[in-house]
Amino acid sequence: MELSNIMNLVRQLEVKLGGSQTHTLEVCKNLTKQISCSTQRSISLVTSYYLDAGRKRSAADAAAPCPLSDASDAPFKTTKKRKTATEKVKNQMRVRSAAGGDIPADDGHSWRKYGQKEILGAKHPRSYYRCTHRHSQGCMATKQVQRTDEDSTLFDVIYIGAHTCVQNAPAAATAGPPPEENLPDVHSLLQSLSSNLTSTPASLVPELISPFSAAPSTSENWGVSPATSDSNQQPGVSFPAFEFEVAAGDVMTFEFGEVVSARADVPDDEFDISSFFA
DNA sequence: TTAATTTGACCGTT
DNA sequence: AACGGTCAAATTAA
């Protein structure tokens, strides 16, 4: 929520900067653009992180080192066990492609494409990615990317599993204790976020396309859903929207340049999203 | 030469 | 049998 609040504040700043001198303001506008992109990336990172944390926590609640093959289980909760196969932690979000780009913005992780399939009834194929460090570190994180039928600048991205890799690990010098079951490094994530927010690489500063022109959101409509799900969007132009429904449908919807919506699909009793946001 | 992508085959589910 | 996810050989990029 803190990160999302940042996005809210940036949007207000953008509105304030709206109709003034058009010279030094461009710098500020570019800054806000970068901030929003960085925020979006950090949200993606944190999202995949808390999903993993929730899964691990529930595993700890079971107090069994081997939760799946635990035969001596008494009914701890009102476990409406669904023994079906797909017990994967998924996290779907809708992402707008980078400015003019043909692929979704970088989400902070390094991926390696391993497949592409035509999907029944879909206009565009679905691409399959796995973490680059799968073999070096055994990171089993995976994602699927598919261009939306309606808007070809939007992509549906599904993250499956969480990263257990360390991004800056250049292959352990010795075969020391492999970090097989370590948590993702939150500190490095925050550090990366911090540097992204402060650095100003003048190199990649594309033209700004006044993203949020009207309907500034305040802390009043925060948390509700003034999501303007318009359909008259022009190419490359974003509009304000901020849908944030957690209690009922665990759906986040942004219209802030990058993330448009996110949904968490977790097996029953595995993760309580309301407790996370609390 | 190594690493990443492409692409049809393969295989488990439904 | 069809669908979708993954493998892996061939190809391309770094």
From TrEMBL:
<dbReference type="InterPro" id="IPR003657">
    <property type="entry name" value="WRKY_dom"/>
</dbReference>
<dbReference type="GO" id="GO:0005634">
    <property type="term" value="C:nucleus"/>
</dbReference>
<keyword id="KW-0539">Nucleus</keyword>
<dbReference type="GO" id="GO:0000976">
    <property type="term" value="F:transcription cis-regulatory region binding"/>
</dbReference>
<dbReference type="GO" id="GO:0003700">
    <property type="term" value="F:DNA-binding transcription factor activity"/>
</dbReference>
<keyword id="KW-0804">Transcription</keyword>
<protein>
    <recommendedName>
        <fullName>WRKY domain-containing protein</fullName>
    </recommendedName>
</protein>
<keyword id="KW-0238">DNA-binding</keyword>
<comment type="similarity">
    <text>Belongs to the WRKY group III family.</text>
</comment>
<dbReference type="GO" id="GO:0010193">
    <property type="term" value="P:response to ozone"/>
</dbReference>
<dbReference type="Pfam" id="PF03106">
    <property type="entry name" value="WRKY"/>
</dbReference>
<dbReference type="GO" id="GO:0042542">
    <property type="term" value="P:response to hydrogen peroxide"/>
</dbReference>
<dbReference type="GO" id="GO:0009751">
    <property type="term" value="P:response to salicylic acid"/>
</dbReference>
<keyword id="KW-0805">Transcription regulation</keyword>
<feature type="domain" description="WRKY">
    <location>
        <begin position="106"/>
        <end position="163"/>
    </location>
</feature>
<dbReference type="GO" id="GO:0010150">
    <property type="term" value="P:leaf senescence"/>
</dbReference>
<dbReference type="InterPro" id="IPR036576">
    <property type="entry name" value="WRKY_dom_sf"/>
</dbReference>
<dbReference type="InterPro" id="IPR044810">
    <property type="entry name" value="WRKY_plant"/>
</dbReference>
